[in-house]
Amino acid sequence: MRRAVWPIVNTAIFTVVVPGTVAVLIPRWILGGFRKPGGGILTWIGIIGICCGAAIYFRCAWEFAVQGLGTPAPIAPTKYLVTTALHRKIRNPMYVGVALLIVGESALFRSAHLIEYAALMLFVAHIFVVIYEEPTLHRQFGESYDQYRRSVPRWIPHIRPNADRG
């Protein structure tokens, strides 16, 4: 844990700057400011989406700092390939978490524009993953990343009943 102190600090800074901008500042700008949400089922769906998305992101960021001894930032990458926790199910859970958070905001604030923004964010993330992240991880981790890539899907987890038992 002691070796992870700076990765944790750097990950916290990255989180405020990048996901904070993508998931808070830009949606606020799109909406013209956050207003008090109305009541009803959409509010609760939004709150659940926001909480789940944030939990996914923070869990993965913790794994990057503590297990990988790095950050999600390309300028301070992990030293070790992270294949634990949610990364066992999909290769890019942080992007999915941020998108889920934005979708939650769209429900909370009743905004179709935020759904469109979430789709755009995932499209840009996909392009970034394919063009930059995957080739970079292949160069950094070689065969271990290639094996991980073959066994874990990029975006949508495989549904395998009883796959984790054994």
Which structural traits does this protein have?
about 170 residues, mainly alpha, 5 helices, about 65% helix
**Segments where pLDDT lies below 50 for 5+ residues?**
none
Percent of residues in beta strands?
under 5%
Globular, elongated, flat, extended or rod-shaped: what is the shape?
globular
**Total E-strand runs:** 0
Provide the fold topology.
Blueprint lengths: L4 H27 L9 H26 L26 H16 L3 H30 L1 H9 L15
Characterize the structure shown.
- Helix content is 65%, strand content 0%.
- The protein is mostly helical and 166 residues long.
- The chain is globular, with a radius of gyration of 17 Å.
- The chain starts with a helix and ends in a 15-residue tail after the last helix.
- The mean pLDDT is 94.
Summarize the structure.
The chain is mainly alpha-helical and 166 residues long.
